[in-house]
Amino acid sequence: MSGIEPLRQRANRLYQLCDLLTKRLGDEAWSGCPESLAGVIGRLERGVDHTLVALVGGSGSGKSSLFNALAKMEFAQVGALRPTTTKANACVWGPGAAPLLEWAGVNPDDTIQRDSVLEPELGEWGGMILVDLPDSDSADVEHHKVAQRILPLADILIWVTDPQKYADPGLRELFLPSALEQVSRVNLVVLNQVDQLSQADAAPVSEALTSLLESGGWANPKLLVTSTVTGEGIEDLRSVLVERTAEETVAARRVAGDLAREAGEVLAQAPLAEYLGADQMAAYGQGLAAAGKTVAEALEALALDGSPEPFSPGLVEVTAAEVRPLVKGYIGAATAVLPEPWQDVAALATASAANLATRLNESLADLSQPAKPGWLSRLFGGAGAREKWRAAWLVKVKGSVVTVVEKALSDPVNYALSDLKDVAAELRSLASSPGGLGGAETGQAPDQGSAEVTG
User: Fold this and answer.
1) pLDDT digit string (tens) for 377-411?
2) Of 171, 146, 169, nearest to 160 (Cα)?
3) Residue 368, phi then psi, degrees to nearest 5
4) CA dihedral in degrees (290, 295, 300, 305; nearest 10)?
5) How far apart are CA 265 and CA 274, in angstroms?
6) Which sequence spans correspond to the domains of the chain?
7) H-type alpha helices, 249-319
């Protein structure tokens, strides 16, 4: 399973980054990411050596007939009753697909295995799983549940439509939004049953369908024209599928693209879009230093009682009520140049007023006074000796206050912002990692091939 371990590491790292964002920004920063990642990781656990190809479309589009034509056998039920496909049917080329099919909810009784040595011509399809889904326009809720379970897992999604219903609402409301969102998946559209059209009518219908896809935001859609009656376009579709699966495993590329997309969405939701540049960080550093100095001076003034006693420590306990406005002012001054989300991170990182007051009082209580001058020094030194002693004491007090401010305010804010800055950079790296198909690396609309109509 080449490439699976790096993908697993990327998925786990994205989980870790999401967890870190939870602590820094709160639960809403990455809503939905764990569920989406669970699906990606679930796929990794079941391997990426198989390519899951899903046929989806409305009733009467000939989806099951197309399935049988591609599989070269009559397996999916074809008939006049609608809907004909009431459950997912799968055709598997090669061994080892059972865990993935079980996870997708495909019943083994509805699966046929095509890995016989008597069918060597099917070797080029090795690793492919072709699934025929229930009709998208079925009124049966269970049919929709089957489709909703399998569609997100498909590595190649083929929307099958026909000349009568090519503008089916399902194309615009189900397939197209999914194709635009799942840009790491291979998305194809098949105009089936073209034998019902005259040669003169086939081109205008194909052009209208292509225009419909383009107007919906899909750049250069890949449209194939087929008929299971005449065989037109069947080999073209088979060739496209073989070409895709012959490349680096589609599933691995799709998972890589999904991870890149998830990282981009987390980056946008966090919100970390406003990246802190060098100039902004320099201004922030200056503001942080000035704010810290202001708070330290204010705390020092609060701690010293101004006692006139010559050698009195002159200290009083600082209360949380006294500290609270200083902390609030510190946060405002230190983070004024930062975008709002980053200001919130800084505010959450700082110690509370009560915590800061407790730290300060404990630190000052642990201070040892400078040695007092002897009686001769006091006698002959007079006021100078007293002032020298007091100055040494104030230096110790100031140092203790500055250390407390750094540990309770400056260091946590710096750490939190630096941490978040690193997270943003890593998310950007994950979001731009290669491996997605089409526009997965750039966030553009999917481009799954030429706009030329084939068939």
Assistant:
1) 555 455 566 777 778 888 889 999 999 999 998 88
2) 171
3) -100, 135
4) 140
5) 14
6) 50-248, 278-423
7) 250-269, 278-303
Angstrom distance (rounded) from CA 272 to CA 430: 14
Q: Work out whether strand 223-225 and strand 186-191 pair parallel, antiparallel, or are unpaired.
A: parallel
Note the pLDDT of residue 447. 39
Which of the pair, 359 or 127, is modelled with greater confidence?
Answer: 359
φ, ψ for residue 157, nearest 5 deg = -115, 125
User: What pLDDT does 231 receive?
Assistant: 92
DSSP element (H, E) containing 389: helix 383-405
H-helix or E-strand containing 427? helix 411-431
Residues 6+ apart with CB under 8 A from 302: 316, 318, 322, 323
Exposure of 307 in the CB half-sphere (CA atoms within 13 A): 13
Residue 354 CB partners (closer than 8 Å, separation 6+): 320, 323
In contact, 179 and 210? CB cutoff 8 Å: no
CATH code of 50-248, in short, is 3.40.50.300
Spatial CB neighbours of 66, under 8 Å, sequence gap ≥ 6? 55, 160, 190, 192, 226, 228, 234, 237
Distance of alpha carbon 136 from alpha carbon 171, whole angstroms: 9
CA of residue 423 relative to chain centroid, distance: 12
pLDDT of res. 32: 58
Q: Which residue has the higher pLDDT, 370 or 69?
A: 69
DSSP 175: I
* Contact present, 71 and 130 (Cβ < 8 Å): yes
Name the token pair of 335: 């983070």
Taking a C-beta distance cutoff of 8 angstroms, is the pair 66, 111 a contact?
no
User: What is the pLDDT confidence band of residue 136, given thresholds at 50, 70 and 90?
Assistant: confident
